[in-house]
């Protein structure tokens, strides 16, 4: 009897895992088609179905944070606070489910920043410290996480300096340069570095990077973002030349 019960439980467990794996695979497929935001919204519905039986499923939770961040980024301004709040909620749950999970920590940082921006400058400055803490935690877990290096660089670049906040272009340059070294195929990282160099009055270096972006293929993992990067690089070059 015990042997039959064990086999039944094992079979059910395997079936549940296969179902969750299928849900994640379908959500990833839809997210890869994010040029149409409807596909990301469908991925959200798919992932939320997966939480019905597995409310603490870490791979589902951080993907929901990522999906809501994408939808919020392209939503009407009036809708962004609600969408980014959803994103941070799922990211926070992901961190609770797996405190050492890199993806959960990374998306918790990014969604916190997005929500701060949507709520206004004062909230954004308050969120910046939380964002930095999470990104530094990511780098403790994964020192070569290019996205975390870049996000920290953007924080230091965009924020005002002391005594208002911790903005520092030299620190930004260090983080962004590392991101580009780790992921030289990523147009977003190179564009961010070029814009920083322009602010630092290093025009020749910035122009070299902008020209390089235009000649690069689309970033394989981020074709939508990369197409936008190439368009912005071209616009900047035309204004500067």
Defining traits:
241 residues, globular, Serine Threonine Protein Phosphatase 5, Tetratricopeptide repeat, mainly alpha, 11 helices, disordered N terminus
What does this structure look like?
The protein has about 240 residues and is mainly alpha-helical. The chain has a domain at about 20-145: Tetratricopeptide repeat domain (Serine Threonine Protein Phosphatase 5, Tetratricopeptide repeat). It contains eleven helices and no strands. The longest helix has about 30 residues, at about 1-30. It is globular. Mean pLDDT is about 90; it is low at about 1-20.
SSE inventory with pairings:
Blueprint: H1 2-32, H2 37-50, H3 58-73, H4 77-97, H5 102-119, H6 121-141, H7 146-158, H8 169-182, H9 187-199, H10 203-215, H11 223-240
What's this entry about, in short?
The protein is mainly α.
Mean pLDDT score, rounded? 91
> Approximately what portion of the residues adopt beta-strand conformation?
under 5%
CATH hierarchy, class of the domain at 21-143 = Mainly Alpha
**Largest β sheet strand count, sense and barrel closure:** none
Give the fraction of residues assigned to helices.
over 70%
The backbone outline, from C-alpha atoms, is globular
**The CATH fourth-level homologous superfamily of the domain at 21-143:** Tetratricopeptide repeat domain
Rounded to an integer in angstroms, the radius of gyration calculated over CA atoms is 20 Å
């Amino acid at each position: 009897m015990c042997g039959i019960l064990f086999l039944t439980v094992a079979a059910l467990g395997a079936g549940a895992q296969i179902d969750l794996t299928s849900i994640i695979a379908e959500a990833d497929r839809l997210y890869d088609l994010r040029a149409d935001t409807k596909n990301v919204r469908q991925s959200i519905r798919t992932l939320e179905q997966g939480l019905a039986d597995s409310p603490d499923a870490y791979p589902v939770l951080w993907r929901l944070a990522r999906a809501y961040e994408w939808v919020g980024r392209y939503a009407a301004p009036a809708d962004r606070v609600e969408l980014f709040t959803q994103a941070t909620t799922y990211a926070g749950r992901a961190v609770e489910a797996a405190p050492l999970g890199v993806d959960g920590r990374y998306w918790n940082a990014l969604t916190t920043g997005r929500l701060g921006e949507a709520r206004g400058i004062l909230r954004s400055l308050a969120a910046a410290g939380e964002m930095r803490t999470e990104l530094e935690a990511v780098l403790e877990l994964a020192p070569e996480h290019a996205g975390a290096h870049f996000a920290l660089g953007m924080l230091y670049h965009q924020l005002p300096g002391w005594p208002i906040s911790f903005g520092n272009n030299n620190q930004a340059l260090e983080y962004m340069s590392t991101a580009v070294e780790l992921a030289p195929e990523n147009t977003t990282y190179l564009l961010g570095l070029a814009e920083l160099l322009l602010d630092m009055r290093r025009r020749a270096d910035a122009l070299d990077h902008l020209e390089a972006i235009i000649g690069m293929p689309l970033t394989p993992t981020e074709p939508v973002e990369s197409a936008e990067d190439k368009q912005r690089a071209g616009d900047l070059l035309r204004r500067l030349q």
